[in-house]
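Q: Got a minute? One more chain.
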Amino acid sequence: MSVMLQWFADLVTYQWFNLQEGTHLADAVDFFIYDTLKIFIMLSVIIFLVAIIRSFFPPEKTRKILSYKHQYTANIVAALLGIVTPFCSCSAVPIFIGFVEAGIPLGVTFSFLISSPMVNEVALILLWGMFGSNIALIYISAGLTVAIVGGLIIGKLNLEKYVEGYVYEVAQDIQGIEMVVAEQTWKDRFLYARDYVKDILKRVWPYVLVGIGVGAWIHGYVPTDFLASYAGKDNLLAVPIAVLMGVPLYSNAAGVIPLVAALQEKGMAMGTVLAFMMSVTALSLPEMIILRNVLKPRLIVIFVSILAVSIILVGYLFNALIPG
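A: Always. Here it is, folded:
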């Protein structure tokens, strides 16, 4: 499917729009078209599958997995669950609603939301192949630590009032029909999932387009050399600079690894590179724009602050453990 989407994006960019290949504008437009198609297809599929699964597994089962345990255990389980679920940050809205629906504590939900885009099995395999087992395992361990600690802090702060009210309303509406859905035929399940996809996409599509647009502009107009020149090995502030540079970008862990390799080759220390990777996947501006649909600004600021500090500390730790 990726090949077909890229072919169509190239067709629109270079033939229909007649843009010159290799220019900043063409690169940005091509990226925007490709990512828009990919993300909306992926969003639709993920939301549809989540709805189908929900029809078989009522919220009570999910609550039992994560809620009945000791709070620290629940955060650890949620972070581990994030590794094996291939959700990127653009999927945060339906997953967030689903977790709220299941009655899972907010802090536990955030442990999952941090872990899922930041660390996954694909990233582990790619990092292992490109940098070796030590780097891959250290990255996974650091990602889990950030997810668990971040979720615990958010849970302790009792921030539920900063979740948009409609999220709880959607959760209650869905929960109210859960018993009915569980008794439906396959045709009824598909119709239910289709309507759920329409409802969620109708709410989030403007945020997704803005997020992709920001990422496309950065992709087309900000060169890799710019990142390396301001966050090289000799700069004491390289880690926070790299984190700030990663914020406007948009990618999942697997998608950003090729850029990580290029940055390391151009002079970035490994800890700085991995901090950059974490900021792209878990702290990106497009993700925050999407999350604004379900979280109030104060909670987003708290979330970003906790993540940024954690990622910066991890970056400095990596640089101390793995000198360039």
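A: Residues 118 and 281 are 5 Å apart (CA to CA).
Q: Perfect, thanks.
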